[in-house]
Amino acid sequence: MPPRDEDDELHAISEVARCFGLSVATLRYYDELGLLPPAGRRGNVRHYGRRELRRLALIQHLHHGGMLSLADTAAALGERGPDGVRRPAGRAVLTGAIQLIEDRTADLRAAQQRLAHLLTCPKDDPVRECTQLRAELDRNVTQALGR
């Protein structure tokens, strides 16, 4: 860990939580996971410097943006496991996350196409009467019954 600048202002956990829109409990949890250790403590109060705040911004970017789970965020950051060994999962985690996003995107596009079809279906009540939707539902029922 590089030495800390002398002018690196430390911020109390409550201030960091407020400024980043998180709860104090969330920051404590991140610390427990080893994901975001504080720069230091004054009494029982955790304090964070610029380095930790930058790391928190990265965690939020990766996790809260829906790109990675919290576990995958930790793995992507190359955290050390309980045995002290660094987890070498960064690129593999990112590759897996990209695949999940591509799969989800394909599912969403298919859903969009189904809804768009229902909007243009000539039936009076397309949700109940659409021939194409009924055929798809029949296939789903047949598959579910294993026939």
From TrEMBL:
Q: Where is the HTH merR-type domain?
A: 10-79
Q: Which UniProt keywords apply?
A: DNA-binding
Q: Name one GO molecular function term.
A: DNA-binding transcription factor activity
**Listed Pfam families:** MerR_1
Superkingdom assignment: Bacteria
Q: Which PROSITE patterns match?
A: HTH_MERR_2 (PS50937)
Q: What is the protein name for this chain?
A: MerR family transcriptional regulator
The scientific name of the source species is Streptomyces paromomycinus
